[in-house]
Design a protein that fits this description.
Helices cover about 5% and strands about 50% of the residues. It is mostly beta strands.
C-alpha cells in the first residue's frame, strides 16, 4: 500500500521560504505522477504543482509559477516543494498525492489522484 507523509509546514512571514517534503513508500514509483495540492480555509482544494517521477517533467499552477519549485530525490523516495517569496494567500493545508500513471498536464487539469497524504499546514503571516 502506498503511503505519503508530508512534513515541513509551519508559520512563516510573508516573503519567507519553506520546503515541504513528501516521503513516499509502498512500491516503486516509476511512472507515477506526484503532485502537491492545497486547500485554504473555506475554499476548494486546488492544484499547486506536479512532477513525473521517472523523467522529472514538472508543471505549476500560474499562482505559484516562478516562486515554487517541485523536485524529487529518487534515492530517498521523497518529493519536495520549495516555496519562496511566500504570500498570505499561500496559507493552506498542503497535500501530497500520487497517481499511478498519466501526465503532469493531466493532473493539473483535475485528473484524479490515487493516493493522498494527510497534509501539512502552512501559515503565512502578512
Amino acid at each position: 500500500q502506498v503511503q505519503l507523509v508530508e512534513s515541513g509546514g509551519g508559520l512563516v512571514q510573508a516573503g519567507g521560504s519553506l520546503r515541504l517534503s513528501c516521503a513516499a513508500s509502498g512500491r516503486p514509483f516509476s511512472g507515477y505522477v506526484m503532485g502537491w495540492f492545497r486547500q485554504a480555509p473555506g475554499k476548494e482544494r486546488e492544484f499547486v504543482s506536479a512532477i513525473y517521477w521517472s523523467g522529472g517533467i514538472t508543471y505549476y499552477a500560474d499562482s505559484v509559477k516562478g516562486r515554487f519549485t517541485i523536485f524529487r530525490d529518487i534515492a530517498k523516495n521523497t518529493v519536495y516543494l520549495q516555496m519562496n517569496r511566500l504570500k498570505a494567500e499561500d496559507t493552506a493545508v498542503y497535500y501530497c498525492a500520487a497517481r499511478t500513471d498519466g501526465t503532469t498536464w493531466f493532473v493539473a487539469r483535475g485528473g484524479p489522484m490515487d493516493y493522498w497524504g494527510r497534509g501539512t499546514l502552512v501559515t503565512v503571516s502578512s
